[in-house]
Specification:
461 residues; Cytochrome p450; 5-stranded mixed sheet; 50% helix; 11% strand; globular; binds protoporphyrin IX containing FE; heme; Cyt_P450
Length: 461
């Protein structure tokens, strides 16, 4: 029997073939005319944005970039138009006054008003930061300490109940509630009470993200109000700037955007560092014992207030915080800038003007030449850090756009961990494992399982 071929698909097949060939020719053209063609990278990454997009979408970008550096060297392409640098030569030149942020930052807005982090050019960011920085001065931090302690002590009261009943708590969730309570109080004097020792249905309904919390705040009308605030808070400092120097004053919309930024940037980051530190200590009883001994020696009377003045002098606690920030940097990955006029030369590689270029703390923090046994959690390594260790330590980024809340974040970490590990022994239940705690990164990191269950057992004095 004669078979009749169906030829109706031919035009589609021909146009698909022509398009594919056209695309291939275009790729080859782009490849040979790309001013970055001297910079190595995987074939897939230098010809298409898909690999970077895929890795970012799956939360694996930081780890993927490390693997690319291992294969292709310190200056690589991670997309046809994006360069990533692993050499510490880049810290000062990429994060400088001359470079501006890329369009990747445009999305950091609150109701269309740009937050400070979204301001791409150095000049407007400088003005906004000038308005914000007084709120984080040393004097202000001193005034903030009792607020942090107030929330923490309330939280510890609640922790004690769990200790008595022998239950574990999910630190991923509850540490976030705690830092959110602290930051909301510091920012605009509102006691939100996510982490109070009673069942809190609002908090229970909003377990997953801060954005849920933020919209909740907005709906319940807790977005900054000027009246009846008990003390000088970050909002009041911004208002002071407006009175003293109206030219530098933020508009009311910008102030609200900044309050939201502070809530967002200041809670997850600190909470997740405290969580990863607690996990590390729970899995390393020897390290935890050393920390407890240092705290017990510094504060022999358990009822004595654990002041920041004293906590900040404890080298082992300092080392614990730094190791947590090093291994589990809350914002670990590629922070994009545009190469300045005249371009940059890093590790003998020229990066032309306007190129999207960045580094990631995740890579520098794992450089075995700077931090021997980089995945080992060793607080002692910070007792006498080398200049290279200091230069490559980038949890708060570097230069004129580094974190505004660094001192507050550092202070909170020391107060939280100091109080918890003075009074409690922290233990891992079987479900909390290296795999459940593996990093997933969507700008900030979180544990893969979305939980960090730990037991907190009150110590008997
Ligand atoms: C452990 C705690 C923290 C870590 C590790 C951290 C880390 C960072 C990093 C890496 C950046 C730079 C982001 C970039 O260039 O894309 C940043 C920016 C920022 N952080 Fe933090 N942060 C922490 C706590 C805080 C706190 C407590 C606040 C405020 C209450 C805060 C407010 C900000 C703001 C406003 C920016 C934007 C600065 C700018 O763009 O000029 N952060 N932070």
């Amino acid at each position: 029997m004669v078979q009749v071929k169906d030829t109706s698909d031919y035009p589609y097949l021909i146009s698909a073939a022509v398009s594919s060939i056209g695309l291939l020719v275009l790729q080859i053209f782009w490849y040979f005319t790309n001013p970055l063609r001297h910079i190595p990278g995987s074939w897939a990454a230098i010809t298409s944005r898909l690999p970077l997009f895929y890795e970012s979408f799956s939360g694996n970008r930081a780890q993927w970039i490390i693997e690319q550096h291992k294969r292709y060297g310190p200056v690589i392409r991670i997309a046809p138009n994006k360069v990533c640098v692993a050499s510490d030569e880049g810290v000062k030149s990429i994060y400088s006054n001359k470079t501006m942020k890329s369009t990747a930052y445009d999305g950091f807005r609150y109701h269309d008003v740009k937050m400070c982090i979204a301001l791409r050019d150095v000049k407007s960011a400088h003005t906004r930061r000038k308005g914000l920085l007084p709120a984080f001065s040393h004097q202000n931090l001193v005034e903030m300490e009792p607020v942090i302690r107030f929330h923490l002590e309330r939280f510890l009261g609640w922790l004690e109940k769990f200790s008595d009943s022998g239950e574990y708590i999910d630190c991923f969730k509850w540490f976030r509630y705690l830092t959110f309570d602290v930051v909301a109080d510091l920012a605009f004097g509102q006691q939100i009470g996510w982490a109070i020792p009673v069942h809190n249905p609002a908090a229970e309904d909003n377990q997953s993200t801060n954005s849920n919390m933020l919209s909740e705040l907005e709906t319940v009308g807790l977005v900054p109000k000027r009246n009846d605030r008990p003390r000088v808070d970050i909002l009041a400092r911004l208002e002071e700037v407006a009175v003293k120097n109206p030219k530098e004053a933020l508009s009311p919309e910008e102030i609200i955007a900044e309050m939201m930024e502070v809530l967002n940037a200041g809670s997850d980051t600190t909470a997740n560092t405290a969580m990863f530190a607690s996990y590390e200590l729970a899995t390393r009883p020897d390290v935890q014992k050393k920390l407890h001994s240092e705290l017990a020696e510094a504060f022999p009377d358990p009822s004595e207030p654990l002041t920041f003045a004293k906590l900040s002098q404890l080298p082992y606690l300092d080392g614990v915080c730094r190791e947590a920030l090093r291994i589990h940097a809350p914002i670990p990955s590629y922070l994009e800038r545009l190469a300045p006029e005249g371009g940059l030369t890093i590790a003998n590689t020229f990066i032309p003007e306007g190129t999207i270029v960045g580094m990631q703390a995740y890579t520098n923090h794992r450089d075995p030449n700077v931090y021997p046994d980089p995945l080992g959690f060793s607080p002692e390594r910070w007792f006498d850090p080398t200049p290279e260790m200091k230069l490559n330590f980038l949890p708060f980024s570097a230069g004129p756009r580094s974190c505004i809340g660094m001192n507050l974040g550092n202070m909170q970490l020391r107060i939280h961990l100091g109080h918890i590990f003075r009074a409690y022994e922290v233990v891992c239940p079987p479900q909390t494992t290296p795999d459940s705690m593996a990093h997933v990164e969507f700008f900030t990191i979180r544990p893969k399982s979305g939980a960090c269950d730990l037991y907190f057992r009150k110590r008997k004095e």
